[in-house]
């Protein structure tokens, strides 16, 4: 468990073949409701890899456990070696080779930070090749609900042009704890945007996670002059089988 209600799952194709994907894409898990009605749920790939996926290499996803949820029951029943039906990868929530921006603003809440974890090797290359800057605003209620915090903090320590900014709406880390850091902020991610002076002349923004956050951030960026090509978004809606863009 990455957090009290979020599990980390590692999957591999049972035919031993690689699952080729672009960081930012998702897969769909297929299952049936109790009455036999087909259902599916979408999960962004959280896998960090900086090379072509090899045969049988695993991929990773983060799954929110919702009390009474059909997909939650499926995942909670899985044991090592269990099988699930899946398709994909899908999606266009990816870093684009044609981008010539000076900075990425990556904004996510909850499991919405998982595609940014997969993007870390790509970002490392872009930092080295183009000298870009990156700000990751990661929203959660408490320090214990921040996903992949060690990965992001470690990446920030190794790459000064990458800032990891946890935004905690309810509880800040205890003073002196490993999670306490000068870049931790109190409040929602969209409330922190003005501090980083979003600039449509140099920034491209990615929004992923809670629909209310995505909408609020989108409107704030539009008001600052950002056009549609400079804002890339994906909403996570538990009752919708596919992330909405």
From TrEMBL:
Stretches assigned to the FAD-binding FR-type domain: 1-96
Q: Mind listing the GO molecular function terms for this protein?
A: oxidoreductase activity
Q: Which InterPro entries match?
A: Cbr1-like_FAD-bd_dom, FAD-bd_FR_type, Flavoprot_Pyr_Nucl_cyt_Rdtase, FNR_nucleotide-bd, MRET, OxRdtase_FAD/NAD-bd, Riboflavin_synthase-like_b-brl
State its cofactor: [2Fe-2S] cluster
- Originating species: Pseudoxanthomonas suwonensis (strain 11-1)
Official protein name in the record: Oxidoreductase FAD/NAD(P)-binding domain protein
Record's PROSITE patterns?
A: FAD_FR (PS51384)
- SUPFAM superfamilies, alphabetized: Ferredoxin reductase-like, C-terminal NADP-linked domain, Riboflavin synthase domain-like
